[in-house]
Amino acid sequence: MRLYMIKRYVFFVLLMTTIILISVSLHGNIVTQNNSGTETGDMLIQHTDEKIIEDPNLKVFNDRRNTMINACSSNESYTVKNTEGTLRSHFVIDRNHKFIYCAMEKIGSTFWRRLFQIISGSSKKKSPFDIPPGAALGGHQETFKSLSFDDIHSALGSSKKFIIVRDPYARLYSGYMDKLFSANLMFWESIGKFGVEKFRDKPSNISKKCGHDLTFTEFIKYFIHSETYNKRRDGHFLPMYDHCRPCEIKYDIIAKMESMSKDTLSVLKILNMTELHDTLAQQFTEDTRDDSFIDQTKILFGSFARTKNCLSIYENQKRMWTKFKSRGLISKYAEFPFQESESVSLTKEKYIKALQQAVKESNDKVKSRQYRNDYLQDAFMSVPKDVLRRLHAILRTDCLIFGYDCDSHLWVKNAFH
Which of 225, 251, 240, 202 is nearest to 43 (CA)? Predict the structure, then answer.
């Protein structure tokens, strides 16, 4: 066993060393200097002024890459804790387009893993929405996990490398709403129960038994504890820099969750996936929303039997409604339209119809964005200042590398004053 562990450790060191060497080598070969001396990566884009005029988003991708490179070149350092096996599983490869995607939970990975199946040709579907969300990890996608050391070396050196990022505070809040606030027995068991017992004074017996009512502040305390002691970490909450190692693997394309539709369409242009681009361009926002409604409602109605001893069916249904409001998919003023007496007989179809009706009554993109921001702000403003300061120290690296002005968030300003 000891010899096996030593071999695994040596392999991991060699893997990461090769990644760094390739990045340095590629960096030297593909980077040019602009007039101000700022590095501009053009392996991905091979851009011309005409192409930038055709798609201004290409300049945005270059700017994001420069931000990443500059942040990684600073004197600041960070510690990574992810294991070799976990790191390998994040990367999926399309050899036809020489395209590598590092997937991260809570940043559009369910959508993009389905889209990747079509891009790579492993699925013949016309749209990612034709592939069930539950099949996102299927499709016989090739990952680093199945590759030899030499193949990884070759793939990294010859491929366009793609990542999607998100404001780290928004990602953390989304993870909480999806995995701890909504009914999720697995996360209640692994994180909810632990957080309740460790961070709550005199928790009730049902809270200790179920872990179903972990507060947002308790969740943030769990996250800080997991990062500080490297225990009970989960991929849905890991810092982005530890997920995909941007300072070792200098990504060519950096998309953002905040501009997902525009960035996705630009990537499809880069890959010359014209038909797929045109299909998605028709109703990207609407299709994404309906996809979420159907998938999440299916999960909701499938959870009742397993969670009813901890959370009533009615409360479960209301929590999902609140989650949709927190995402800005429906108005924050949209009252839950069903009575408790209807909860047992309520069908998935009726629930989805109510969601779609709520969309019609509040279909305003500007207000939708504001509703989402309101929920985010209220959640973090409820966290004690000392806890927020510790959280900020952990998330700061992601903010810097991926160009998020996290210091401008009201809750961050408030925490340091």
Answer: 251
Residue 220 backbone dihedrals phi, psi, to 5 degrees: -65, -40
79 conformational bin, left if phi > 0, alpha if psi -120 to 50, beta if neither: beta
Per DSSP, the three-state class of 101 is strand
- Rounded Cα–Cα distance for residues 134 and 298 (Å): 11
Closest CA to 125 of 294, 279, 337, 295: 279
User: 124 with 140: CB under 8 angstroms?
Assistant: no
In this structure, are residues 100 and 159 in contact, taking their beta carbons and an 8 Å threshold? yes
pLDDT in tens, 16-64: 554 544 444 333 332 322 333 333 344 444 444 444 446 788 999 999 9
The Cα 7–Cα 273 span in angstroms is 42
User: For 357-415, how does the pLDDT look when each residue is reduced to its tens digit (9 = 90+)?
Assistant: 999 887 787 888 999 999 999 999 999 999 999 999 999 999 999 999 999 999 999 99
Domain ranges of the chain: 56-165+247-272, 169-236+293-416
Give the torsion through C-alpha atoms of 372, 376, 377, 380, to 10 deg.
170
Beta strands 31-33 and 253-256 are: unpaired
Quote the pTM value.
0.87
For 41, phi and psi rounded to 5 degrees?
Answer: -75, 130
Question: Please, what is the end-to-end C-alpha distance for the chain in angstroms?
Answer: 52
> Which pairing describes strands 142-143 and 99-102: parallel, antiparallel, or unpaired?
unpaired
Burial 214-251 (b: 16+ CB within 10 A, else e): bbbbbbbbbbbbbbeeeeebebbbbbbbbbbbbbbbbb
DSSP category for residue 32: E
Q: Residue 355's Cα: distance from chain center in Å?
A: 24
